[in-house]
């Protein structure tokens, strides 16, 4: 998987870039971290980076930009309308994603807002491989619901299935037949399905989905936020595409979709987002919503500097040595944790490593949020901020009953080209210590629960004094170490 082999035979991911701008990090003592996580309501979203050592919360808007991206930001053409920066972005979208018409939006979920407002009506069902938090929220907001059609084995966390993000074609046909074509606004495919461990789909599967879409006259929408890494893993794992360039693979995937949308906070390592298509009628149907919700059609709520960075970042997505960085560091992190018996999602995917909290904290009932508890405990003992992807990130049904998540994961995001190998080794070391002391971790309960996307700002508290016990054990084992 790594582009460079070591003489020693060790499988080490090698940084193929050098660091030219640095930011000081703060590794505060565990006693301060205990106060910080209490102040944050045991929700890692609410921590200040002043108290965070390695920020592995997300890969969204936290990726390192290249020298060429930064340089491009200086030539940004500040104009409300007709900015040349936007023309450069349009050209990049056409050359890299193969789509002529572009609607700019301020981030990925804004694209979801526009698409769902336009196409999702009450009673509608959106078949998809798997949901993402914001995509589901926008479908629900417009009165629709999601039908998740992964193959059953995709939720087996430990596996060597190379394409867990594939859609089950039989389930798709059944879903369409049962709900009726008229109740299906579009089929949604998400590249590198975020919530189940950043797992890709194959091109063969996307082609099958396209055939079904054609048969029933349905639109196919591709969430391309994690497209670059999905393309990279296709090249690694799908034999038919081994010899093709990233450019060919990316165009093949986007070419199968009627509408492509993305968060540029991930794809292109910048900020912003877009919706693109080659079908003029679809572009026209959504066009009027952009000035209403985002901004004029040549900036869409994005700063022109970021538009320039996005254009350059899109071209850089075609560079395999660039795009391989995050997946190869993730593969190292996952395989090293696996060797130590720590339960992790395999095969390694994109955007981060995912620890199986249901196995790690098998003594914590799912109603006490094992993934949330693990995220808080890991921050406490390491200063590393991960993200809960489990029941805290889920919702309640119309009767207020928890919908328990399919999987309880602690996601440790690996932003693109940000961390060094010794920092990754620290992650592994502290995770091993926590695994060996896992019985000290206890559950959480909500003290403040917002009605929508509660995981962002929700507040929780421990169900016992387990955090203090972890601090005691840490001090006994590490002395006065940070
Ligand atoms: C991050 C993400 C989004 C939302 O994008 P934002 O820029 O964070 O609004 C949508 N879909 C997927 C798959 C994502 O990973």
What is the count of structural domains?
2
Bound chemical compounds: pyridoxal-5'-phosphate
The third-level CATH topology of the largest domain is Aspartate Aminotransferase, domain 2
Helix content: 40-55%
Average of per-residue pLDDT values: 96
Strand elements, count: 12
* Main beta sheet strand tally, sense and closure: 5 strands, mixed
CATH-derived architecture of the largest domain? 3-Layer(aba) Sandwich
CATH class annotation of the largest domain: Alpha Beta
What share of residues are in beta strands? 5-15%
Structural class: alpha/beta
- Termini gap: 34 Å
Q: Low-confidence stretches at least 5 residues in length (pLDDT < 50)?
A: none
Strand order of the largest sheet: 1-7-6-5-4
CATH superfamily of the largest domain: Type I PLP-dependent aspartate aminotransferase-like (Major domain)
Please tell me what the overall shape is.
globular
The total of helices stands at 19
Q: What is the gyration radius calculated from CA atoms? A: 22 Å
Give short descriptive properties of this protein.
five-stranded mixed beta sheet; Aspartate Aminotransferase, domain 2; EC 4.1.99.2; binds pyridoxal-5'-phosphate; three-stranded antiparallel beta sheet; Aspartate Aminotransferase, domain 1; 11% strand; 2 domains; globular; 19 helices; PyrdxlP-dep_Trfase_small; 482 residues; alpha/beta
Question: What's the topology here?
Answer:
Blueprint: H1 30-39, H2 67-74, H3 84-97, E1 101-105, H4 108-119, E2 125-128, H5 133-141, E3 145-148, H6 169-179, E4 187-190, H7 203-216, E5 220-223, H8 227-237, H9 246-255, E6 259-263, E7 273-277, H10 280-287, H11 289-293, H12 304-316, H13 320-323, H14 325-339, E8 352-356, H15 357-360, H16 370-382, E9 387-389, E10 409-413, H17 421-436, E11 444-448, H18 454-457, E12 459-462, H19 466-478
Parallel strand pairs: 2-3, 4-5, 5-6
Antiparallel strand pairs: 1-7, 6-7, 8-10, 9-10, 11-12
Helix pairs in contact: 1-16, 2-12, 3-12, 4-5, 6-7, 8-9, 14-17, 16-17
The site of pyridoxal-5'-phosphate has 16 residues, from helix 4 and helix 5.
């Amino acid at each position: 998987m790594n582009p460079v082999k070591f003489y020693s035979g060790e499988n080490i991911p090698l940084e193929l870039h050098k660091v030219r701008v640095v930011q000081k990090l703060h590794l505060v003592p565990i006693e301060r971290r205990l106060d910080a996580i209490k102040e944050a309501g045991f929700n890692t979203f609410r921590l200040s980076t002043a108290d965070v050592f390695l920020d592995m919360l997300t890969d969204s808007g936290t990726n390192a930009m290249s020298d060429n991206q930064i340089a491009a930001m200086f030539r940004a053409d500040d104009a409300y309308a007709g900015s040349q920066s936007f023309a450069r972005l349009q050209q990049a979208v056409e050359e890299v994603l193969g789509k002529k018409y572009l609607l700019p939006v301020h981030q990925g979920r804004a694209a979801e807002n526009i698409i769902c407002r336009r196409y999702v009506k009450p009673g509608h069902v959106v078949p998809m491989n798997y949901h993402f938090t914001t995509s589901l929220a926008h479908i629900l907001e417009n009165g629709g619901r999601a039908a998740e059609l992964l193959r059953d084995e995709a939720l087996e966390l430990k596996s060597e299935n190379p394409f867990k993000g594939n859609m089950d074609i039989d389930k798709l046909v059944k879903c369409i037949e049962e709900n009726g074509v008229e109740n299906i606004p579009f089929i949604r495919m998400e590249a590198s399905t975020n919530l189940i461990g950043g797992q890709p789909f194959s091109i063969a599967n996307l082609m099958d989905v396209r055939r079904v879409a054609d048969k029933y006259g349905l639109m196919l929408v591709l969430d391309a936020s994690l497209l670059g890494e999905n393309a990279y893993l296709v090249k690694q794992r799908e034999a038919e595409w081994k010899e093709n360039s990233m450019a060919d693979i990316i165009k093949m995937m986007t070419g199968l979709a009627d509408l492509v949308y993305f968060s540029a906070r991930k794809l292109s390592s910048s900020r912003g987002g877009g919706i693109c298509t080659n079908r003029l009628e679809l572009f026209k149907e959504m066009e009027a919503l952009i000035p209403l919700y985002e901004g004029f059609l040549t900036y869409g709520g994005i700063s022109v500097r970021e538009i320039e960075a996005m254009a350059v970042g899109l071209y850089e997505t075609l560079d395999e040595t660039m795009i391989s960085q995050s997946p190869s560091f993730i593969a190292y992190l996952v395989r090293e944790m696996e060797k130590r018996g720590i339960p992790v999602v395999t095969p390694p995917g994109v955007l981060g490593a995912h620890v199986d909290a249901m196995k790690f904290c098998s003594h914590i009932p799912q109603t006490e949020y094992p993934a949330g508890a693990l995220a808080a405990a890991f921050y406490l003992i390491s200063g590393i901020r991960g993200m809960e992807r489990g029941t805290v990130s889920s919702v309640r049904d119309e009767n207020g009953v928890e919908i328990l998540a399919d999987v309880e994961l602690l996601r440790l995001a690996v932003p693109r080209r940000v961390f060094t190998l010794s920092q990754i080794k620290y992650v592994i070391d502290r995770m091993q210590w926590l695994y060996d002391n896992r019985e000290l971790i206890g559950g959480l309960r909500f003290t403040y629960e917002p009605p929508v996307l509660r995981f962002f700002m929700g507040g929780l508290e421990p169900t016992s004094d387990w955090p203090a016990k972890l601090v005691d054990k840490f001090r006994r084992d590490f002395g006065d170490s940070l």
